[in-house]
């Protein structure tokens, strides 16, 4: 239990400002969030103490205590989410953002959540992973009538077991989740727990995906698998905050998957153990070291590691298509195809014809192509040594010696100590000749082309 910042002035001010005296007599005033930045952890101003999580590009909902019950107010509503700077998407979310605020409580807390529906259609909230009375489970039609537009329903139950959970609608679920309705729920242990370690940093995010046609602003809600915006908490690299740690700290990272496919989450430079799932803590005897763990659809994974290697380490989904921005997938492979001479002829007929991928696709990372308005590039993000050629489900784990406890600010680029970075060979060049070309002329894939997205609206 960390009480260091229990009476932190900033956290107290946030909670106090969000609960006016008028509201105490009625519904709790809903706290709203206008920013997509990562909010500092909310140290609990009331109730039992705990070491709070940091929600990547998100925030924790403040609450009020009412006769020993923790009261929250979620407002389901249309929001505009900044997925990356300059890239805004019409979503449905809670309290001003998608995902909604993280709910943090303590094992044994009685929790009352007011849910106001400001959507144009009915909704519910299902509390994924919770032990609760059947009538509080939130499946519209099965456990309760759905919440009509304009109405407020009340959910109330005891947070019975500690762990990593999430919430989402269970009414017109396919549409409402495709529009971004979801949030995290963390139940902290009430006392020291044999299977739950004390950590110095505790990060949390949800995996979510959208299908936004380049140049448009509203997700296509009927897409099953072919999404083009692969997000952590409705953000894409390089707009996802880095996870910062002081060298030697124990770090927990909680990940939940509300997309339609699995995501192998991979960290560089360190090993971790899966210490818990939405089913609860994993017994220590059942843990093993990993550097990648697959998070399947509807699963949550809680990983822990010791941040003992300084540097800027990649942390990403290992499906390479999920670290890319908006792109078309029906583009033929052009590696090894010589287009010289052909382009000019084609451009007489198709003026916006362009060639891509003759030498691989790395050129795309540096290329500034004309894109439709409100589209983020397929690969983007620049590091100290050039373009990263990544977008989507990618961020960095920044480990530094000498950070202050609880300092989550981006420490900037890592400086490689002299003699510890890959370098160019300055000796004689390799003498092995290139193998002779065996492909006969004319057998390469023919007439493969990619048109600028302004024309086709889809491919780059
Ligand atoms: Cu993925």
TrEMBL record:
Region (Disordered): 409-460
Primary location class: periplasm
GO molecular function, one term: copper ion binding
Low complexity: compositionally biased ranges: 427-460
Coiled coil: none
Keyword Signal in record: yes
Domain Plastocyanin-like: 89-191, 219-331
UniProt GO cellular component terms: periplasmic space
Stretch forming the signal peptide: 1-25
Protein keywords: Metal-binding, Oxidoreductase, Signal
Compartment(s) where it occurs, according to its Swiss-Prot or TrEMBL record: Periplasm
Protein name (record): Copper oxidase
């Amino acid at each position: 239990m960390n009480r260091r910042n229990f009476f932190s002035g900033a956290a107290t001010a946030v909670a106090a400002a969000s609960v006016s005296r008028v509201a105490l007599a009625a519904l709790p005033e809903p706290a709203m969030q206008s920013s997509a930045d990562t909010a500092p952890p909310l140290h609990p101003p009331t109730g039992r103490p705990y070491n709070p999580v940091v929600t990547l590009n998100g925030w924790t909902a403040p609450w009020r205590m009412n006769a020993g019950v923790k009261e929250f107010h979620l407002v389901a509503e249309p929001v505009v989410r900044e997925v990356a700077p300059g890239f805004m998407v019409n979503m449905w979310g809670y309290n001003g953002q998608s995902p909604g605020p993280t709910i943090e409580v303590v094992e044994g807390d009685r929790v009352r959540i007011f849910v106001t529906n400001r959507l144009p259609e009915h909704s519910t909230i299902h509390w994924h992973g919770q032990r609760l009375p059947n009538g509080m489970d939130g499946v519209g039609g099965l456990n309760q009538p759905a919440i009509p537009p304009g109405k407020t329903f009340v959910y109330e139950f005891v947070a019975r077991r500690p762990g990593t959970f999430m919430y989402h609608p269970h009414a017109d679920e396919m549409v409402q989740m495709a529009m971004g309705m979801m949030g995290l729920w963390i139940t902290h242990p009430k006392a020291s727990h044999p299977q739950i370690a004390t950590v110095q940093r505790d990060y949390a995010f949800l995996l979510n995906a959208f299908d936004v046609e380049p140049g448009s602003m509203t997700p296509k809600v009927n897409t099953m698998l072919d999404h083009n915006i692969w997000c952590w908490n409705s953000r894409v690299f390089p707009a996802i905050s880095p996870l910062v740690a002081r060298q030697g700290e124990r770090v927990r990272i909680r990940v939940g998957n509300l997309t339609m496919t699995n995501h192998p989450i991979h960290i560089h430079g360190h090993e971790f153990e899966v210490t818990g799932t939405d089913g609860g803590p994993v017994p220590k005897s059942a843990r093993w070291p990993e550097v990648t763990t697959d998070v399947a659809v509807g699963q949550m994974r809680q990983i822990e590691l010791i941040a003992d290697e300084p540097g800027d380490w990649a942390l990403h989904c290992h499906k390479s298509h999920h670290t890319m921005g908006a792109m078309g997938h029906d583009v033929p492979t052009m590696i090894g195809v010589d287009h010289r001479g052909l382009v000019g002829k084609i451009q007489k007929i198709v003026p916006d014809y362009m060639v891509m991928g003759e030498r691989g696709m790395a050129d795309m990372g540096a290329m500034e192509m004309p894109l439709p308005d409100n589209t983020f590039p397929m690969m983007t993000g620049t590091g100290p040594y050039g373009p990263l050629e990544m977008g989507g489900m990618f961020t960095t784990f920044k480990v530094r010696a000498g950070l202050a406890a609880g300092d989550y600010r981006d420490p900037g680029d890592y400086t490689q100590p002299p003699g510890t970075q890959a370098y160019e060979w300055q000796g004689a060049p390799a003498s092995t000749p290139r193998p002779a070309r065996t492909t006969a002329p004319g057998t390469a894939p023919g007439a493969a082309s990619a048109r600028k997205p302004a024309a086709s609206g889809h491919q780059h």
